Amino acid sequence: MSIEVRLEGLTKVFHSHRESVVAVDLLDLQVERGELVTLLGPSGCGKTTTLRLVGGFEIPTAGEVYLGGKRVTHLPPQRRDTATVFQSYGLFPHMTVFENVAFGLKVRHLPRDEVRRRVREALKLVNLEGLERRYPRELSGGQQQRVALCRALVIEPRVLLFDEPLSNLDAKLRVETREQIRRLQKELGITSLYVTHDQAEAMAISDRIAVMSEGRLQQIGPPYEIYAHPANRFVADFIGRANFLRAVVVGAMDEKLAVELAGGVRLEVPFVEGLEPGTEAVAVVRPEAVDILPEGEGDVTAIVVFGHYTGSLATYKLSLPSGETLEVEVLSPQEKGFLSEGTRVGVRFHRQSIHLLKE
Amino acid sequence: MERYRELRRLVHDPFLLFLVTLVFALLTLFIVYPLVRVLTTSLFYRGEFNPKYFLQFFQRRYLIKPFLNSLTVGGLVSLLGTLIGFVFAYAVTRTDIPGKSLFKVIATFPIISPPFLIALAAILLLGNHGLITEFLRTRFGIDWDIYGLPGLVLTETLAYFPLAFMTLEGVLSGIDPALEESALDLGASRLRTFFRVTLPLATPGIASALLLVFIRSLEDFGNPIVIQGHYPVLTTQAYLAVTGMYNLPLAATLSVILLVPTLLAFVLQRYWVSRRSYVTVTGRPTPSSLKATTSGLKWGLFAVLCVLSGIILLFYGLVFYGSLTRMWGLDNTLTLENYRYVFSTGLDYLLDTLKIAGMATPIGGILAVVIAYLVTRKRFPGRGLMDFLSMLNFAIPGTIVGIGYILAFHRPPLQLTGTAAIIALVFIFRRMPVGIREAVAMLQQVDPAIEEAAVDLGAGFSRAFRRIVLPLISPAFISGMVYIFVRCVTAISAVVFVVSAQWQLITVALLHEVDNADLSQAAAYGVVIIVVVLSVILLLDNVLGKMILRRWQRVH
Lengths: 359, 556
Ligand SMILES: Nc1ncnc2c1ncn2[C@@H]1O[C@H](COP(=O)(O)OP(=O)(O)OP(=O)(O)O)[C@@H](O)[C@H]1O
Ligand SMILES: [Mg+2]
Fold this sequence. Notes:
The complex is a heterodimer.
Chain A: E1 3-15, E2 20-32, E3 36-40, H1 47-55, E4 62-67, E5 70-71, E6 82-85, H2 97-107, H3 112-125, H4 141-153, E7 159-163, H5 171-188, E8 191-196, H6 199-205, E9 208-213, E10 216-221, H7 223-228, H8 233-238, E11 243-253, E12 256-261, E13 266-270, E14 280-285, E15 290-294, E16 300-309, E17 313-319, E18 325-331, H9 333-336, E19 344-349, E20 355-358
Parallel strand pairs in A: 3-8, 3-9, 6-7, 7-8
Antiparallel strand pairs in A: 1-2, 1-4, 4-5, 9-10, 11-12, 11-14, 12-13, 14-20, 15-19, 16-17, 16-19, 17-18
Helix pairs in contact in A: 2-3, 2-4, 3-4
Chain B: H1 2-11, H2 14-43, E1 44-45, E2 48-49, H3 52-55, H4 61-94, H5 100-112, H6 116-126, H7 131-140, H8 149-174, H9 177-185, H10 190-219, H11 222-227, H12 234-243, H13 248-273, H14 295-323, E3 325-327, E4 331-334, H15 337-342, H16 347-377, H17 383-392, H18 398-408, H19 420-443, H20 448-456, H21 461-472, H22 474-490, H23 506-515, H24 519-554
Helix pairs in contact in B: 2-13, 2-17, 2-18, 4-8, 4-10, 4-13, 5-8, 5-14, 6-8, 6-14, 6-24, 8-10, 9-10, 10-13, 12-13, 13-18, 14-24, 16-17, 16-19, 16-22, 19-22, 20-21, 22-24, 23-24
Adenosine-5'-triphosphate binds at residues 14, 16, 21, 23, 41, 43-49, 197 of chain A.
């Protein structure tokens, strides 16, 4: 596999009146051909800045950007083979849909016939046929979004950059559009870097997710990997919900570690590098990786302190003997009955789903 | 590192590099260099450091007198102009008097016409042969005329109060009337509300207006040259030093002396007062329910506005009437002779003016949008400096610019004196800041992603600018050009130094006629100027402007 985007030690410091903000901090990242990598993280963590550094809209304070193996750090956007789908779309308000999409082709001095043919094909791809002569403000938000996508696709860039392309759409349209983007991206095999702060969107659309916090890369990997084996507390907390229980490693076997949770419960959980017997650790327990059983069964007894029912799901907060709180999600609660506060229950942990973090 | 990278990137965007270099070269040559020449001329004599006129400043009446006079006029005009401006603004924003838009239109007259037309009108009325002067003389035997301090204060106040009005209108309409209403609801009297709520909120705006009018008065050349009598101010004294005494060091020194209070006021206004404004508190103009004024006050204000507007209308009407008389004050029979003269002997002046305006307008307009675009949207080393330099002439009195130009461009390699180019250049670089500000304001409304998309899709600087930026900010582009054009036809303070036998301006012709005491002829020039200005504003701003605006609105 060849690497289409490579970021090396990428750093961007913004200097405003009094303070300096390190928006991107020594970021290393690679995107392979045809891959869709998401930059995911909370607001202000530097996702957009990273994307703009790749597109050439910002000049890095340090570090380099390579596209297709060529260093492009010194090149302005028009000399980079990237195309961006902007959060606000950035459609040319004084041009029709056709002119918008044709812009990038005309810049390349393609023959008129070819421009027309390719624009038409591209519009078809995103289901916008028939709207060629409209102006952007005569389109719905979803249509505008597709014009923006189409305008970027039509020049067949080496890398497509998306900056929260769905954030201006309503929830339902968001899901539809992201599926469409993913389908097109796979069909056309376009290498993509996709910025979002919505973890569900990232999980649904990505080959790999790069989780960022405060300008730093926290972890990069396929969605499954990120969810199941978060590299640190931040990732575990940001992706999905997580309980963090204090634990001590008490023994190591091949493939397994024995741990003792704070309340004295002993479990054998999947092996994690670098945790010797005797070290303190944190057990990441996902809310769905716990069974609630009648009192006396399972690993430990707990008391329901709070219950919340949403139809498909019941969420409970349980108080463990260690004093820690455990959040638990129960699917199809109808079958099991809703537990009232104060009920004593048994708790069983899914060993395979528990992930240990170094403290 | 980042600086170095900005520089390297410029190299890969050759057109941008070319533009940045060109703009810096132009700014240096036509803004910085003339200023430097003024400074060095005032400080050096025959190649040696010898600031002799500065050293004599307190001893020489011809130095200290104009300085004190300028400050006196400036102070009085600033106070009066701001007071009137406030009354206008208060009446328009805080009451429901009838005829608001008419008042606003009348208040813009002095802004778009040559300011010294007011001085001309004042002389028609109160000058040597003025209507009122003659009346007083024949009926009561009182020998009084307006020349000197009273004339200066009267004319400049009328000429510059609109500036205060527009500043304060913006400020007052930005103050949520709910604030005043809640004060009233809490039991405060109307007077108390005005003094404890309205006035404090408007204070930064008032300070701003005071300073702006002060600056304008200090810089004013047209009114003083017409009406100062034996009350010389700095601008006219500097003009006299050049044209009457050929004493350039003295002229340069006087301009530097003029520069000090102007710059001080400018800096105060820009960096201190405008920072302290509370006006953006609400941001949206709320429909005011106008409870804060009684009907007595309302009609009182209405009466004041009527009187003031009446005076302005009377003045302009007088100029028109005067233009139709044979020899104002001596022979008031009606004639079209003066217009025949304007379109025969004076035609050269008119055509020269239009030719020069025709050069300065498009060049200045384009330069303004290019600079606005570069400083708001592009990253390159020296961006802040470019911003500063391009706005510099905004703060500098025309007199200094004019003197700077003759000092800088009177000998090879850049001998421009006597050409049309030097006049056009003065207009371009003096009037560009307004175009820049409009374009900057408009660019700030345009989503940067729009141009970024263009560049991202492969458009170079030039294409992105022509195809995307320019169409989107065309209203600012056009109004910037309208402004430059209007000033080409009406301004005088700087260009009076660079006109020549070959290239004359209609404003200068007007002043000559005033000098010759042919007020009727001067008035005819004035009317022609107003007609030209009005037709261009109506044509460009309405027809073209609306056309483009409509397309623009359609697409937004
Ligand atoms: N042009 C700029 N000047 C100064 N600071 C900036 C600039 N652009 C971004 N920043 C700062 O850099 C940091 C990262 O911003 P960035 O826009 O990359 O965040 P983000 O991850 O995209 O956030 P969001 O999800 O809210 O869009 C923020 O602290 C932001 O305030
Ligand atoms: Mg962002």
